[in-house]
Automatic annotation (TrEMBL):
Annotated localization: Membrane
UniProt protein name: ZIP zinc transporter
GO cellular component: membrane
Positions of transmembrane segments: 6-26, 38-59, 65-86, 164-185, 191-212, 224-241
Record-level Gene Ontology MF annotations: metal ion transmembrane transporter activity
Primary localization class, coarse: membrane
Membrane topology term: Multi-pass membrane protein
InterPro entries in the record: ZIP
Pfam families noted in UniProt: Zip
Length: 245
């Protein structure tokens, strides 16, 4: 099981970096066209992983009220954390939270990837299909996120090779996150459903508070249809993987 955890943790971190770097080689017009589709696919995978995988798995291990309360608490927690981060780094009204300095991007990526490692380990300790579905959802979300982070690092004056190296190093924090979670949760099985519930709340929050509002800025029918189709494809893939359990 540990090899599954480490393999998909590496795939989820460095795989997303590779795909993002490859994506940046495309012409700007192509990236502009594909980005909403990637974000739509990520939305579908995140929501499906939360509602079709993590929450049902948590409900099999703990009482429904406790799981629901954990999901709700997680959503509120992520809202508060995001508010504190924005308040700390955006003190004036004109601040755009996406216009952050390079070091802040790297620190944020390191923490985020550490958490991803924890999530993947908790999912695999529940079942292999849930672990695979969770890793797919993380990869789908990380690709557009890493593209954005690469762009910010380049705008901050980093050379392309240096930006790629530093982003890759930040992604490797997923490994200690996965290892710590794997060995801790293996000893404290009672914590698994609550880690899954909190993980599900993070997926729901990312989709609802970040991705969907961005997608809703495009109003033309053609883009809306593409977004809907990609969301459904994302849901279908995660749903299919979960049926393998």
């Amino acid at each position: 099981m540990l090899l599954w955890v480490l393999g998909f943790t590496l795939l989820g971190s460095l795989g997303a970096i590779f795909c993002a770097g490859l994506f940046l080689t495309f012409p700007h017009s192509v990236r502009k066209l594909l980005t909403p589709s990637l974000m739509s696919f990520a939305t579908g995978t995140l929501l499906a992983a939360a509602f079709l995988g993590m929450i049902p798995a948590a409900l099999e291990l703990a009482e429904g009220y406790q799981v629901s309360a954990s999901v709700l608490a997680g959503i509120v927690l992520f809202f508060v954390v995001e508010k504190l981060i924005l308040w700390r780094h955006c003190r004036d009204r004109d601040c755009d939270p996406h216009e952050r300095a390079g070091p802040l991007i790297l620190i944020g990526d390191a923490v985020h990837n550490f958490t991803d490692g924890v999530v993947i380990a908790a999912a695999f300790l529940t079942s292999v299909p849930l672990g695979i579905a969770t890793a797919v959802a993380i990869i789908a979300h990380e690709i557009p996120q890493e593209v954005s982070d690469f762009a910010i690092l380049l705008e901050s004056g980093y050379e392309r090779k240096k930006a790629l190296l530093l982003n890759s190093l930040a992604s490797l924090t997923a490994i200690p996150g996965a290892l710590i979670a794997y060995f801790w949760l293996a000893q404290v099985n009672a914590a698994v459903p609550y880690v899954l519930a909190i993980s599900a709340s993070s997926f729901i929050y990312i989709a609802a508070a970040d991705l969907i509002p961005t997608l809703q800025r495009q109003h033309n029918p053609a883009s809306s249809v593409r977004q809907f189709i990609m969301i459904i494809i994302g849901i279908a893939i995660i749903g299919w993987v979960n049926t393998l359990a």
